Amino acid sequence: MNIHEFQAKELFAGYGIPIAKGIAVKAESEFDNALAQLPDGKIVVKAQIHAGGRGKGTFTDGFKGGVHVCPDKSTARETASKMLNNTLVTHQTGPEGKLVKTLYFNEPCAIEKEYYLAITLDRAGSRPVIIASTEGGMDIETVAAETPEKITRVFIDPAQGLQPHHKRSVAFGLGFSDKAQLKQLDKLLTGLYKFYWEKDASLVEINPLITAPDGAIIALDAKVGFDESALFRHPDVVNLRDLDEEDPKEVEASKHGLSYIALDGNIACLVNGAGLAMATMDIIKHFGGNPANFLDVGGGASEEAVTEAFKIILSDPNVEGILVNIFGGIMSCKVIAKGIIAAAKNVEIKVPLVVRLEGNEVKEGKALLDESGLALTSADSLSDAAKKVVELVKASN
Ligand code: ADP
Ligand code: MG
Q1: Full domain range(s) for residue 49
Q2: Record-annotated residues binding substrate (predicted)?
Q3: Residue 119: which H helix or E strand, with range?
Q4: Structural domain tally of the chain?
Q5: Would you say 378 and 348 are in contact if contact means Cβ atoms under 8 Å apart?
Q6: If you average pLDDT over every residue of the chain, what do you get?
Q7: Whose CA is nearest to atom 9 of ligand 1?
Q8: 158 shares its domain with 270
């Protein structure tokens, strides 16, 4: 789960990480009040969307830039009016862009140098890693590809936590030697690691972290993601969730305890279990098809949840065929069959439907589907099912 920059910075402030003062707004009527709380002079206006690259982004009406350093408050107000409720396209949003529903007015910072600093999980080493670079403000992927020597990685033993030598390695990697700055960096790293660890973050990224001419070190941007499996421990974090930023189908699915992942093909997959989902997608690809999504109904979904799952799948206009691939372990094939039948009563299924049921109460499930009179193709094995759905979709095009 991701949050906005302004939310991340509010959390940072609580961990002693220096940020530029800022106020978030959601409507033009809030502009004046927000601007009054910032000092006169330059104002930075920043679009709040769950995607990076805002500075270099362009709005769909041609207005350039999701981050503007404005010379005064009246220019900031005008610029903000152009940005709010406009759609911003960055290299991370996809061509459709993201509607900007929140803006962040910021105090400007004089920048001497921009750095990159992040903490994330190193999956291969099963431990947190601090990633630091002197090349701030750039895409870290580009730095990693072109000048990997400019990236410092410091691995942390999770049992020991952050140690002074970790902080020295980061300081050395970033080229800090001034005593006062080393002290600031030490405090910042301590706060950032504490935040990462306590909040079960999956990523905390500051790009850029800057030094100001007076020597101050400040987090100018903040990107934070949380481990969803740990959200139950953090109701305060769950409160920061912005459903507008998420795929509405994924949100709807999560309300019913289902996991829905949108992809860009045309064959919908309704499965139980993530492993089966992977295998189903692989085999669809093997037979020359492309998955449009996968919807995992999990181990113990109810008939209602399966009905909702079907409705979600059918609401995707890219879906040209559906493959139901269920292995009933705990799940009864009867529940799946009833869910499909109930969904078909609500929403007309206009695309080919291939069903492969196996396992617990498979006979009863198949019998229910046969009696229902639904137009579907049944399949006996995974490869048979995948082959059939790919062929049917091709034939219908
Ligand atoms: P993004 O990474 O999405 O483009 P950033 O928050 O990193 O957005 O902003 C882009 C650039 O705008 C930064 O690299 C920095 O140069 C400048 N910038 C951002 N916030 C401020 C600020 N408060 N004062 C001065 N410059 C800023
Ligand atoms: Mg940035």
Answers
A1: 22-106
A2: 272, 329-331
A3: strand 113-122
A4: 3
A5: no
A6: 94
A7: 55
A8: no
